[in-house]
């Protein structure tokens, strides 16, 4: 497994080469507990609020407040999945989430791979993998399967961040290394679930690598690296977040000046020659998170982040698989 130590200012050349060669990289100790706790606090506040609402409506029997972060949602979900549904994906946008997305340690790593004009890309996600839950297993896919085809050959970096220790038993990710320079495999709608899948006959050949990541670590993936996760077979919730970063030269709906040579939207259909989309994943809002050339356009406060997330008007993504994706299916699977 490609596991390395990070430097204090991003990745060394040899570690960048490892990521480029393998298509993934585990950094086992990027964060301290203090870096992660504000995001966990955001989750707990949102959980408390939804629990109080359901208690008042008679839809939940008790608070389950005696259980810790790793166990509480599992207990609640035995009664109702309404709390989980109020938390997962990109619903929350509190100050703790913004602090994690903009953490300098993380931005140093992202800049090492994506460049100094850095976009915090669309599709940040919160993933509570609940024991014995219908959406527990996520089939093999590439994140580019959900993105605009224009961005297939460029790097849109996924940073997968467990908020508890992740392992094979509670549903860490699996990857297929060294196949990310090939084409995007055919994807199809997964039966009865709101995500895409690559069926086994279409999977690129290669070893399947299990990637356990401790709390404080991260897993880096390219947008073309096939990955999946299996069901959580423990009694804890495998909490994680996944964030995405890209160079500002790629299509982005961030409200920034475009520099010479950067992509600008063109055309109205994926089938038009020269078509350039509004963003690599236009349903959601991008923002400039680090810049040397336009530092005054960097989004700097949690209040700005919350306003951006709540006021953004979603734009449909191109229909690349012959079936319209709407709602949750526009988003990468709950990994």
Care to give the gist of this entry?
This protein is α+β, with helices and mostly antiparallel strands and 335 residues long. It is built from 7 helices and 13 strands.
How many domains? The number is 1
CATH third-tier fold name: Jelly Rolls
Instruction: Give the end-to-end Cα distance, rounded to a whole number of Å.
Output: 19 Å
Question: How is the main sheet built?
Answer: 7 strands, antiparallel
Q: In percent, how much strand structure appears in the residues?
A: 15-25%
Q: Give Rg in angstroms.
A: 19 Å
Task: State the assembly state of the protein chains.
Answer: single chain
* Helix share bin: 10-25%
Weakly predicted, low-confidence segments: 3-8, 324-334
The named CATH superfamily? q2cbj1_9rhob like domain
The CATH architecture classification is Sandwich
Gross morphology is globular
Number of strands: 13
Label the structural class: alpha+beta
Order of helices and strands: HEHHHHHEEEEEEEEEEEEH
CATH class: Mainly Beta
Round the mean pLDDT to the nearest integer and report it.
91
Question: Helix tally?
Answer: 7
Please tell me about this protein's structure.
By secondary structure, the chain is an alpha+beta fold. The chain has one domain (13-323): q2cbj1_9rhob like domain (Jelly Rolls, Sandwich). It contains 7 helices and 13 strands. It has helices at 13-22, 33-56, 72-76, 82-85, 95-101, 104-114, 302-311, and strands spanning 24-27, 118-120, 125-129, 138-141, 156-162, 173-175, 188-189, 196-197, 209-211, 218-221, 227-229, 238-247, 287-290. Strands 1, 2, 3, 5, 10, 12 and 13 form a 7-stranded antiparallel β-sheet that branches. The protein has a 4-stranded antiparallel β-sheet with strand order 4-11-6-9, with no helix packed on it. It has a two-stranded antiparallel sheet with strand order 7-8. Helix 2 packs antiparallel against helix 5 (95-101). The radius of gyration is 19 Å and the shape is globular.
